[in-house]
Amino acid sequence: MKKNVFYYFFAALFAVTMFASCSDDDGLNEDPNPGGGTGTGEDSVSVADNFVGEYKGTLDVSVGGASTPLMYQNITISKAGNDSIDLVISNFTFAGAIELGDVTLADCQLSSEDNTTYTFHREEEMTFSNPLVGTCPVTSDVTLFGDSVVVELAIVWNGGIDVNVVYKGVKLKGTEKTEAQITSFTFDSSVDANSVVISQPVINEDNTITFGVSEDADVTALVPTITVSDGATLSPAGGVATDFSDDITYTVVSEDGKTVAEYTVNVPSKLSSWKYSFDEWGTKNGTSTGLVDTQSASWDSPLPLDELASANEGVAALKTPFGGKYEGDYAMTKEENGYSGSAVKLQTLYTNDLLEFIPGSIPAITPASLYTGTFEFSMQTEAAKQLTMTKFGISYDKKPLTFKGVYKYAKGDNYIDGSQEPALENQEGEDRGLILAVLYEASADETLDGTNLKTASNRVLLAQVGGDAGVADTNGEWVNFEISFEPVGDAEYSSDKQYKLAIVCQSSVNGSEFKGAANSTLWVDELEVIGE
């Protein structure tokens, strides 16, 4: 209730004070010519030449020493006489809600001692129509110099409460721009590199700005980099350490002062970052004995070994006498010259020339894969059943929001359809790579595999780079991606349910159908899932 009384008091106060005429017609100015001029002749003040025009500025109100929010306001000064001006505040709105319309200080008689700075001064007892205000001493001062104007009102209310109003403005040239927008809002790269800000700000349509930080982040001294419309001004300023532990409102004022826009930066969301940089690697060994002995085989694999897996044990099986005596490299290998440090290299292998003891037991192509989950090798003589060895996904207790990373892709030339026997080589088709992350509902012992990764009904949220078509050839260039997780059909996320998250990268997007081009290669680096 006190807040409303406060606002309406000022509305009444401004309405009475600011509409008050400065001329001697109101009986408050005993000297009809305080400037010393005659109104005609050489000693008169040339107001039109010096001060006529529109001014852009701010209105500052304080009560008992306590400031109210700064307001942005334009005023217009026109000539009332050779030594007097009219000062108009158009469409004046106080406290963001109380509209007073056009406010005029009429026929303000100016004086000057140096012909550079011109002033108007008055002290009076003023009776306000609002009974909450009554009669108050009011001191009015107007100062004009160069292209600047200052209007000051000092009011003593209720016998002792000081109310001070200060307007400061600068004359416009008439060529100023009208736009008032925050065009970008980011954080210092060094802060982001330290994993404080893990989801850069987004400027939303409702002029809110949202971003995410790590769960243990200190947000009391983040440094935003803010750009605004050409010529516009920003308050508070960007580029300085700022406390974002509470919502912050930024105000943008257009160069001409006529457009004011407010943006609210919300308290950042506490997010989790699940990131794989692929800079640290370990060794994995095969698990199978018997006719297909892979236990003696080993290969490099990115850390952590208990989260990331590949189908390299399947390649190890192909290297055995019973498996076809494959002599090439593994499908998933370490790329020393990654986007940042080392990366993962995935290459589709040509295996159509291997000796099969059982027809159809060896696929014509063997796409490379890297994924979250495990690879559980078993002796399978049917190629289709070999897809069940890939166990995609590990437990995830957040709601994934964003999937990001870096990749490059080089398509192979010999497109093979290995879905039939014998396989068909040099077919029409252009190979692409697969990069996706999918959240699915599952109990502890449930996983998706190569047979249902793209079709399972328990999938809830999906982020797939390039969509179903996959990622195309990048001509040797690294490509950054950052995409949002979207619902799969009508599926809805619920924090009460158990989920697993599968990040899957594969050198041939249709590899699960045994289709792809030999030597197609996908490199991936800096994969990250941001969740809340």
UniProtKB/TrEMBL annotation:
Keyword Signal in record: yes
Name of the protein in question: PCMD domain-containing protein
Lineage: Bacteria, Pseudomonadati, Bacteroidota, Bacteroidia, Bacteroidales
A Pfam cross-reference name: PCMD
Domain (Lipocalin-like) ranges: 53-169
Gene3D superfamilies referenced in this protein's UniProt entry, alphabetically: 2.40.128.350, 2.60.40.2340, BT2081, beta-jelly-roll domain (2.60.120.890)
UniProt keywords, alphabetically: Signal
Listed InterPro entries: Lipocalin-like (IPR024311), PCMD (IPR025112), Put_CMD_sf (IPR038653)
Cleavable signal peptide: 1-20
Putative carbohydrate metabolism domain segment(s): 299-530
